[in-house]
């Protein structure tokens, strides 16, 4: 238990600083966005587990040889007024910190979900007044606005893709198809759930570099994943032009600001609103997408992708083993 707490602390530090910094600067994620997405999730989960686990294991070390025994002894102290003399000040402090951090993370996750759902509910109410069904098919709405705007609003069976008159007038049919396929890919692949989790993580620990780098990277990766779906049926030139036209309407122009005011002060992209993405973040993501399409590189070889996936599994397995394997390190 003693050595496990220190190993967990070291792992938490490594996953909180050097690993996310190096990954955010790497070039390979654009070649295999799905693999990179899995790795970011593993880093986030393993980092949080290691951070809480290090404090928990250290706090329980005097009263148990393993996590289960320590928790049983702690439960006896709390529920049955067993003596607490075995716990020193720093052990009690570590246990309190672990409990508070866990409660803080869970509360922030739920609070973020509540805020997002409230925003979406207000958004849908305004869309019912401002938007009309599109001829492009069910689940697509059109708002009357001269600036090019496209975004999706998740909501299960109520999910919709919203386009503006200005966008539909500016796009050729193939470009409009690319936009619709891209937005529908966000919905079908449930990207809003990832954005919700990483947005909550950043709000809970805004001082931790991992949270900012992870959110920015995940925002970019989900756009690349949606682009890849669109590229299955549309050309790169078509998609690049569509991205450029849509981006021109979300760059903070006066028209875009007016639209945000009309539609519940949300960001132009429904997914951006869910993630709390800033205009600067959106601009960087757009630049990364266009650069990737203009200078395509082959996908990572299958053996390399398999190694990254295996590494992601090991990242999750290591803190879990340090926590739950009885007497692993004595």
TrEMBL record:
The keyword Transmembrane is annotated on this UniProt entry: yes
Gene3D superfamilies linked to this entry: Metalloproteases ('zincins'), catalytic domain (3.30.2010.10)
Protein name: M56 family metallopeptidase
Family, as annotated: Belongs to the peptidase M48 family.
Organism: Pseudarthrobacter quantipunctorum
Record flagged with keyword Phosphoprotein: no
Species classification: Bacteria, Bacillati, Actinomycetota, Actinomycetes, Micrococcales
Domain Peptidase M48: 118-198
PANTHER family documented for this protein: POSSIBLE SENSOR-TRANSDUCER PROTEIN BLAR, SLR0241 PROTEIN
Alphabetic keyword roster: Hydrolase, Membrane, Metal-binding, Metalloprotease, Protease, Transmembrane, Transmembrane helix, Zinc
Cofactor(s) named in the record: Zn(2+)
Record-annotated membrane-spanning stretches: 36-60, 67-83, 89-114, 307-329
């Amino acid at each position: 238990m003693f050595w496990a707490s220190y190993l967990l602390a070291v792992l938490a530090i490594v996953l909180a600083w050097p690993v996310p910094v190096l990954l955010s600067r790497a070039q390979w994620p654009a070649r295999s966005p799905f693999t990179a997405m899995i790795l970011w999730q593993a880093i986030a989960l393993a980092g949080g587990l290691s951070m809480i686990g290090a404090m928990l294991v250290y706090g329980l070390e005097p009263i148990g040889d393993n996590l289960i025994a320590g928790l049983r002894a702690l439960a006896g102290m709390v529920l049955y007024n067993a003596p607490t003399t075995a716990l020193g000040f720093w052990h009690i402090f570590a246990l309190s910190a672990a409990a508070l951090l866990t409660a803080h993370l869970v509360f922030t996750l739920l609070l973020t979900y509540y805020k997002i759902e409230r925003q979406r509910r207000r958004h849908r109410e305004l869309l019912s007044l401002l938007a009309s069904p599109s001829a492009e098919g069910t689940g697509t709405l059109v708002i009357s606005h001269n600036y090019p705007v496209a975004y999706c609003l998740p909501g299960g069976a109520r999910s919709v893709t919203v386009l503006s008159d200005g966008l539909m007038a500016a796009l050729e049919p193939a470009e409009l198809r690319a936009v619709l396929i891209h937005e529908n890919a966000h919905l079908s692949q449930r990207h809003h759930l990832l954005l919700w989790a990483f947005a909550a993580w950043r709000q809970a620990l805004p001082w931790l570099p991992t949270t900012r780098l992870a959110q920015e990277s995940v925002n970019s990766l989900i756009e690349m994943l949606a682009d890849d779906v669109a590229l299955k049926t549309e050309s790169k030139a078509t998609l690049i032009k569509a991205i450029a036209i849509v981006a021109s309407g979300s760059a903070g122009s006066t028209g875009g600001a007016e639209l945000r005011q009309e539609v519940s002060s949300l960001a132009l992209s429904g997914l951006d609103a869910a993630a709390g993405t800033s205009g600067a973040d959106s601009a960087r993501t757009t630049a990364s997408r266009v650069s990737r399409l203009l200078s395509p590189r082959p996908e990572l070889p299958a053996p390399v992708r398999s190694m990254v996936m295996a590494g992601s599994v090991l990242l999750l397995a290591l803190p879990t083993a340090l926590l739950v394997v009885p007497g692993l390190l004595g």
